[in-house]
Write a structure and sequence with these properties.
about 150 residues; Signal recognition particle alu RNA binding heterodimer, srp9/1; 2 domains; 2 helices
């Protein structure tokens, strides 16, 4: 396996969410922000319902590298996509930081305007661990193990 990336779906707030993440992690969007109106016709999708005009300027795809081997990617869910978007706790993004200070800074920024689920604190497996939900409903865990070893 070369790498694992995280793909996030939003209800029309992808651009705001990714600008928020870029303000925290830095970097640039790979290839910019691609809008649905920029997508070329795709084979196998001829039978899909037409997209609403007001959805064409929503985000079709965006990628933000957050480490050398991890990229956050996302799209807006639009009316012609199968399934229904349900924001919830069905996944969490876990960041293993290089220091307790980095965990504190990232936790503070990610939880601002959101909700703290578990305050950043010492646990049996980590010098610092905390969980929060950002303002866009994405669940995050911040973990700095330090000299501790995760239980197996």
């Amino acid at each position: 396996m070369k790498e694992v990336n995280i793909y996030l779906n939003f209800p029309g707030t992808t651009e705001a969410a990714f600008n928020f993440y870029r303000s925290i992690f830095g970097g640039e969007f790979m290839g910019g922000i691609m809008r649905f109106r920029d997508f070329p016709p795709m084979e196998g999708m001829e039978d899909w319902p037409a997209m609403k005009e007001e959805e064409l300027d929503l985000v079709g795809h965006v990628s933000l590298p957050i480490t050398e081997h991890t990229t956050l990617m996302g799209t807006d869910m639009v009316s012609n996509m199968p399934g229904q978007l349900v924001s919830g706790n069905n996944f969490q993004i876990t960041l293993e930081t290089d220091s307790a200070e980095e965990a504190e800074v990232l936790f503070g920024k990610l939880s601002e305007g959101g909700r703290v689920v578990m305050p950043l604190s010492e646990t049996f497996w980590a010098e610092q661990f905390g969980a929060c939900v950002d303002p866009f409903g994405v669940h995050w865990q911040l973990n700095y193990t330090g000299s501790r070893v995760m239980p197996t």
